[in-house]
Structure formats: structure tokens, C-alpha cells
């Protein structure tokens, strides 16, 4: 690969040096533009200007063998006819499951908390990620399949199978942080050639068969949208495994990490709000959750400071000009646009103490800042539609995050954690103390 030369096409050369547009070129990849500022980032969501064809993972596109020979909805551009059918199917399916969300997730959380408590008793500390992954997979499978995943041929292997399936697809995006010259071996092993599907072929067949056998009502619905059952099931596996489980695998440890680091003062405030509202409303309901203003803000703040998917990509449909706080930049048709979301959502011109976790940031007038939160591949103030690329499960993600905090602080007063950077995205979290609730 030839060397790349950064080029800034700034239409205002007097602008601040804090804003930049990086254009990279090589024979193998299209020219690329890197967005670092809040004000330019939303162009990535404008599908009239930006194409989303096979750019979920940037310039790398995994083999369709990983999805049964079909391009999953996440890789489709909204202008492709199948995109609207598949995304409408997803949103309709989730809407039909709405009444199951809270009771099912609360049931799954009970098992998670028991596992954590057992670890605290036996070893005085407890890892969070592994039992959280098991809980998340079981919740997702039960939501779509109406049975526990352990009651299928998957047994207890579901999370491990999905982890392997995801790792082989996303390996080129991983960074092992090897020292010195060993980084070259990482490039050779991970980024010279795509890892083959056959390493996970039998496992994926087992995963697909479990969903196909358990999700007949969901697949029936797909046919009403003109989608064949086989293609619908492969997309369902992708939605459940890649989008839902993969997202929760990063989201819940991140949420616990930041709330844990915030300390006992925030824990007391959350516990007071949650227990008061639950007592007044007579339970954990949609109406009760909507009244928990601080709890909602804490979830938004975790999603702002460390979004589960930090990278967004698109390819310019035409020559476009995007504006930063104090400059304008030209992007040529066909250039790849890369957005690193944490730079945008921690823009100090938008957020005070942008690098700090502020639990009540979005309380009161702070709600006006929600339009600058982009974790769902769109503004927090906007909704997913069949015509855009915003996460179809956006509302479900927010809901389960709030329910997670509610159930946690109904059960516990405060806690401490140790954290470390995970191999891919997110963090590994270990509970070092966990104090059960003294009042309800």
C-alpha cells in the first residue's frame, strides 16, 4: 500500500487549528475523511448525502457466508429496496414484544444478580462480564424464541458461539496493543486476509437452527413483509447476535463501570429516586421508568461518554461541504467518511466538563443537549424509520439500561468495581464490594 498523505481542504484557512478534516488516499481504498468535531458529525446520518452500502465496518466487509449468503440489513443502504422491508420487519417485531420487555428482563436480571452474589460470597469479588453476557444472550433469545436458550441444542454455549462468530467477522478492526515490532505480526494475522467462515460454520448452523426452530411466529411475520423465512432468520440471528447481544456485551459493563466510578453519592441519589417512584407507582412499569429523571440522565451520560459503537462510516454520494464550528470542508463524491463518535460527544464547545461523567447532565435544561448524543447512529431526539440507519432497537436499549439500574438499586445500596480495557470494545468489570439494600 502506498503511503497516505493528509490533505485538509479547508475553505476557511483562518479557522481554528482545533478543527480538522483528514483525507487519506491509497490505491486500495477510497479517499477517506475523518470527522473529529460535533458540528460535522451529523452528516454521517444524512442518507441523502452519505451512502451506507457495505460500510458498517468501514472499508472492510466480512464474507456473506457469515450470514447465510445474505447481506444483513445493517450492511444495506436505505436506497436498496430490501432495506425498508427488513427494517420495517424488525421494528414491527419489537413493537409486538413491547409488553414482554420489562417482566422478561427483570427475570433474567434476577439470575445475573444471584450469580454475582455467589461470586462475592465465595471469592470476595465477582467478575461481571461473563454472567452479564449469559444474561443478555438468554434475554435476547427468549424475547424472540419464547424459550430459554438452554432448552435448545445450544445449551449453555450460546454466548461463546456468538463471541466466536463476531470475532471472526470483526477481527480486522481489533487492536491487540502488542509492543514494538509485534504490531507488524498483528497486521499480518488480522488484516492481510479475511478469516474464513469454516472455523465457525458448524457453530453458526447450530445457532441458526435454534432460532429457526424457536422463532416461528417471528418468521411468520417476516413473510407478511415479503421476506423469505431463510433470509429473515439469518437477519434475525444478526439482529439478535450482532446488534442486540453484541451491543449489550459492551453496554452493560460500561454502564456499571461509570456508575461505579461515580461513587456512593450518586448511588444514594439513584436509590432514593428509584425506590420512591417504584413505591409510589406500585411497581416497575413504563410509567414509573418515565418518572425517573436522574436514572434516565445517567443512562444517557454513559452512552455519551462511551458509546457502545464508537465508529461510524459512510461514503459521499456527491460532492458535499460540511461545516465545523468555525470552518467549512469539502468532501468529494466517493470518498469514505469516518466519524469517531467519542470526539464528537465529548466536544468541549458543547458539553461542560466533557471528559467527566456527570450523572445529572441531562436533567432539566440539560435535556436540550440530547440532540448531541449519537450512540444510536442518529440523534437521541430522532427516531428510527425504515428510511434511515438509526438503530431499530433504540428504545429497547434505553429501556433495558434503565431497568438494569432500577433492579440494581432496588437490590443494592452501593458498590465498588475494578475495571480494565477489554480486548475489543468496552471494559472488563469486577465487583470488589456490593452492599445489599437496607431500605426498600
Automatic annotation (TrEMBL):
Matching SUPFAM superfamilies: Cytochrome P450
DNA damage in keyword set: no
Alphabetized InterPro entries for the sequence: Cyt_P450, Cyt_P450_E_grp-IV, Cyt_P450_sf
One annotated GO molecular function: oxidoreductase activity, acting on paired donors, with incorporation or reduction of molecular oxygen
UniProt cofactor(s): heme
Positions that bind heme: 391
Keywords for the protein's UniProt record, in alphabetical order: Heme, Iron, Lyase, Metal-binding
Entry's Gene Ontology BP terms: fatty acid metabolic process; sterol metabolic process
Tree of life domain: Eukaryota
A Pfam family reported for this protein in Swiss-Prot or TrEMBL: p450
PANTHER family: ALLENE OXIDE SYNTHASE 2, CYTOCHROME P450 26
Family per record: Belongs to the cytochrome P450 family.
Protein name per the record: CYTOCHROME P450 26
Organism: Salix koriyanagi
Taxonomy of the source species: Eukaryota, Viridiplantae, Streptophyta, Embryophyta, Tracheophyta
